[in-house]
Amino acid sequence: MKTKILLLIPTLDRSGAEKQLTLLATGLAFEEFDVRVVALTRGGPYAKTLAEQGIDVQVLGKRFKFDPLTLSRLRRIIREWQPDILHSWLFAANTYGRLVAGKGKTPKIIVSERCVDSWKSRWQLWFDKKLIPRTHLLVGNSHSVADFYRQQGVPDRKLRVIYNGIDLPDAPVVTREKLFEELGLPEEARVVGFIGRLAPQKRVRDLAWTVELISNLQPHIHFVIIGDGPDRQQLETFARETQNTDRIHFLGHQPDPARFFPAIEVFWLASDFEGLSNSIMEAMAAGVPVVASDIPPNRELVVPQKTGYLVPVGDNVGRAKYTNILLEDKEQRAAFGQAAIARIRDQFSIPSMVAAYAKLYREVLTD
């Protein structure tokens, strides 16, 4: 008899946790696992991907932070389908799942936390602590995430770490020259890039300041920003005020951001906090050196002086310094890029991630 896995997440938007859930759901062995996916609030691009792979997806239409109707719908699904494991992702799903499933032995409750959640308010952290007795295991996607929740009171016996998975990309389908033409970049441009949500956590304004600093050393510098979010208008205003609209390019949301990596020589990430950055992993998988903020999750990915550099949060001068070193040294860029590809291949593959979760499911069912 197959093991029934119910994967619960707030949405199926195109974002990091949603992508990892989709990779897991479509990667688990059909012969061993029967997988269903429930989105609390809405579907999204990954709902179509899951449906195309024959995975049942239900959307509950949550309207409020606390929505009794959604709780009732989720409770009915669990009662009728009787999953062996309820595996939830992110705060809302982790809370709703544990409230509905209760303290019983079935289904087993696994919660996935994807970030060092210093953004959480007191009431959210209070809820997390209150629900620890209803949690069989908490999985972090980095040791930094696990450490954060250990500090919130989750005992070691309930903590696990499973890294995100990512595939090495196929050969680029578009050349650097074609991308330059598409983006309207001059032939002599030196391109740095960022992929992610334009939100305060990401400190993209710091990256824009770095463009201003490094332009004295690299007069042909161009910064490509892929993504959207609440800070976009502020960032566009900043680019105008610093007269950098010709250097800073806002591409907005892109369905396939990785296609732009052939045009990017150095990848930037300045975040205050992360879980395990999918954008860093994607850059490394494409052989692009990374200059990132020196926070614990990034240390689990970037090997300084081997695959890139780490600088203190807010250190725009340091970021400019190391970016300049990489732009000036083609051989070092190539060596860092090859080391990055090898690191992703050896330690962060999708098959490794899926196999780790399958092993975890078997483990929790024998407790």
UniProtKB/TrEMBL annotation:
Signal peptide: none
CDD domains found in the cross-reference section: GT4_WbnK-like (cd03807)
Domain Glycosyltransferase subfamily 4-like N-terminal, first and last residues per copy: 15-168
Entry-linked InterPro entries: Glyco_trans_1, Glyco_trans_4-like_N
One Pfam family from the record: Glyco_transf_4
SUPFAM superfamilies: UDP-Glycosyltransferase/glycogen phosphorylase (SSF53756)
Alphabetical keyword list: Glycosyltransferase, Transferase
Entry keyword annotation includes Transferase: yes
Residue stretches making up the Glycosyl transferase family domain: 176-341
Lineage top rank: taxon: Bacteria
GO MF annotations, alphabetized: glycosyltransferase activity
EC number: 2.4.1.291
Name of the protein described by the UniProt record: N-acetylgalactosamine-N, N'-diacetylbacillosaminyl-diphospho-undecaprenol 4-alpha-N-acetylgalactosaminyltransferase
The species this protein was found in: Symmachiella dynata
Taxon lineage: Bacteria, Pseudomonadati, Planctomycetota, Planctomycetia, Planctomycetales
